[in-house]
Amino acid sequence: MMNTQKHDIKVITVMALIAMPIIYLAYRLVKYGLATGLKTGSYLYAGLLVFPAMALVVICALFLQKPLTEILSQSFVDFLFGRHHVQRPEPKYGIPEFQHEWRHFEEAILEYEKIAVNFPEELKPWADMIEIVMLKLKDPDRATKMFHKGIAKLKDEENRRELTIIYLAHCSRIGFEPELQNQKQV
Predict the structure, then answer these.
(1) Where are the alpha helices (DSSP H) in 3-38?
(2) Pair 40, 63: CB distance under 8 Å
(3) What are phi and psi of 130, to 5 degrees?
């Protein structure tokens, strides 16, 4: 996620860059009007240009962290500053959840395994695979192997602890006594 202060500075910069040429054009019109004596017309045109520029600055000031300003300025920010990082797509759980819902458990497990490979930091595929194997397929030995594989793949200690809790909860539901070798007790 982009740092809020940096984003706010970019929004202000973009709004200022949009407003500055408009104000400069208004200044040139006023200067031209004073030099040629066409005061009324050039002041009118200058006023028509200054007010939108000032309105842009006011919008920026009032709605700095609001979506409206972000929507208005995001394309300019992207053009001027570029994207500093490419956001990874979110994992798509629709296919395995559909397979699970339609009781195609092996297909669901295969889809969850694909997600677990592509998104190794995600807890959900491991938790869902253990749930399917333990509660639907009633295969605690396979679920134990999946649990140990998930523990080995997950880097975050909090996710490992949550997976252990989920595994133990499923084990207690079916009355299976797990062997937690090399695991901290929860």
Answers:
(1) 4-36
(2) no
(3) -65, -40
Q: Is 180 left (phi over 0), alpha (psi -120 to 50) or beta?
A: beta
Task: Please choose, from the candidates 153, 129, 147, the residue with its C-alpha nearest in 3D space to the C-alpha of residue 183.
Answer: 147
pLDDT by position in tens, the chain (length 186): 445 666 667 767 777 777 777 777 767 766 666 555 555 555 566 666 667 666 766 666 665 555 555 555 666 666 666 665 556 788 999 999 999 999 999 999 999 999 999 999 999 999 999 999 999 999 999 999 999 999 999 999 999 999 999 999 999 999 998 876 545 544
pTM of the model: 0.53
CA-based nearest residue to 63, from 110, 186, 107, 71: 71
